[in-house]
Write a structure and sequence with these properties.
Elements (H helix, E strand, L loop, with lengths): L1 E4 L4 E4 L10 H11 L20 E7 L5 E6 L3
Antiparallel strand pairs: 1-2, 3-4
């Protein structure tokens, strides 16, 4: 699934199963790819900003403190 940040003009592709939580590694890689500026808070939990083709939901927290995120289709 392609996720974008329209502030930085960046995008990344996440390989995930709809409805299944992303791994901490997937979350970290997406954040780095979408919002490459250290300390910037322009995007959401994955670094996304602007309209997305999927819904990004926080469903809890991982042991490392990162949010547990699921990508789901729009309703």
């Amino acid at each position: 699934m392609k996720i974008t940040n329209d502030f930085h003009g960046t995008q990344t592709t996440i390989r995930a199963t709809l409805g299944r939580p992303l791994t901490a590694g997937q979350v970290i890689r997406a954040r780095r790819a979408l919002c490459p500026v250290s300390g910037c808070s322009c995007g959401g939990n994955l670094g996304e900003r602007g309209p997305q083709s999927v819904r990004i939901e926080i469903i809890g927290a991982l042991a490392c403190g990162a949010p547990e995120i699921v990508i789901a289709p729009h309703e």
